[in-house]
Amino acid sequence: MPRVEFLTGNQAMAEAAIASGLRVFVGYPITPASDLFEYLSDKLPRYGGIVFQAEDEIAAINAIIGATYSGAKAMTATSGPGFSLMAESIGFAAMVEAPIVVINNMRAGPSTGIATGTGQGDIMQTRWSSHGHYGIVAFAPWSVQESYDMVIKAFDTAWRLRVPVIVLGDAVIAHTREPVEIHEPGEASVYERKKPRDPPGRFKPFKPDREDLVPPMAFYGEGYAVLAESLSHDERGYYSTRQEVYESLVKRLVEKIERSRDRIASSDAYYTTSSRVLVVAFGSLARSALALVRMLRKSGVKIGMWRPKSIWPLDEDGLVRAAEDAEKIIVMEMNLGQLYLEVSRILGPRGKTIELVPVISPQLPSHEELLSFMYKAGVKIG
């Protein structure tokens, strides 16, 4: 039965991973994810799990890719600088279809930036950090409860689709302490792998099912010939340079996520009916943005808010519905305009006026301070 505890975002994500069946955590210390690492170091071994400190983030992510192929649910956690080092292996995980979970608690950048500051500058890095074209999934919580729930959803999605899944937390949510309803270890409802149906002699490790385009997964040591080939490969896992093989592979890596968009993409809308202005914000900044919206509504402004809970893929249908009555869209984010580009792509052709409020600050602004950022950007409500 679920119980309620008073946890930080990092502790909640660690508990969610344990409830999802986490068996291997490999990491490297980095603020603001180090205390998640420390929490798991103490708790996961009690439930038969392994926690290992790698020599760097590159080793950490490659270790969890190997762990999933050996049959273990695996995860790592980092922040922007460490996530940058993981970029090549994100593409590797996508190519070999390894169901890994990566928590990226965003902080102020670029480079090492401000280690104790918060930020939201990793949106595009999450989607396009590795070269080539592939699918990715990323969730963005705004509370401790959502941090918990989204890690469970991350494990479920990773194993259902055999994809790397990123949880885009931030420094504020990571260290905010709130009541959260949690499950006992191993009790979360998480999809288990699709097992091979063909005997070892006929099994092809990258032959997808037609319905969801996801191949069954055989673990090492089960008697199947399994290749984890990072090069372009056919259904057997053998390297191939044939155009039709490469085209089919790349399109499938993207399409299998698109086919599950309705299951993955999610968002929340607030006061959007008959609102002439729509604010778009995510993560911890959305908390300040919603407080600002409520303040402005009390003064008679017809304003609402839309908050994406999944960043990749974005809930485009939800955004279009939320913006139906709005004439102006105001995107507020702690960067110089990344989510803004996606909102403009979706709503620009629909004749909406879209403006950006960039919040360049290592601290989360209050709703009054957020109003000042709006004035500084020259954005008007009317």
Overall description:
The protein has helices spanning 9-19, 34-43, 57-69, 80-85, 87-96, 123-128, 144-161, 171-175, 243-258, 261-264, 283-298, 316-322, 339-347, 367-376, and strands at residues 3-8, 22-27, 50-53, 73-78, 101-108, 114-118, 137-139, 165-170, 177-182, 267-270, 277-280, 303-308, 310-312, 328-333, 353-358. By secondary structure, the chain is of the alpha/beta class. The radius of gyration is 21 Å and the shape is globular. It has 14 helices and 15 strands. Helix content is 37%, strand content 21%. Strands 2, 3, 4, 5, 6, 7, 8 and 13 form an 8-stranded mixed β-sheet that branches. It has a 5-stranded mixed β-sheet with strand order 10-12-11-14-15, with helices on both faces. Strands 1-9 form a two-stranded antiparallel ribbon. Helix 1 crosses helix 2 (34-43). It has 2 domains: 1-264, Thiamin diphosphate (ThDP)-binding fold, Pyr/PP domains (Rossmann fold), CATH 3.40.50.970; 269-376, 3-Layer(aba) Sandwich (Rossmann fold), CATH 3.40.50.920. The model has no long low-confidence stretch (mean pLDDT 97). Helix 11 links the parallel strand 11 (277-280) and strand 12 (303-308).
